[in-house]
Amino acid sequence: MSNQHGEAVVLKPISEVAKYLKNMIPVDIPETYALKPLFKSIASEEEIRSGVIAFRDFMLLFCARLATDGHIYAKAPNKPSGTTDYPFLHNVTNLLVEIGYHGILTDTGKSLLVTELPSCIPTIDEKGKKKSPKIPASGKLDCLRFLTLCGFMFSGIDLDTKTHNSSETQQIEVSYPGNPLLLKGLKALSVSDMELREGRRYWNDHNLLRCDFRLMKADETDVLDYIKDILHPLSEELQRFALELHRSYIEKGFTCVMMVRGDVCFAYSDIRKSKKVLSTQDIYTQRVWALSYSMRHGYCLLVRAKKLDKYKDVVDKFSPSLKEIIGKGYGCDRKLRNERCQGGCQGIRVPFDDSIIKISKEIEIWLDNEIL
Question: Is the pLDDT at 194 greater than 50, yes or no?
Answer without folding.
Answer: yes
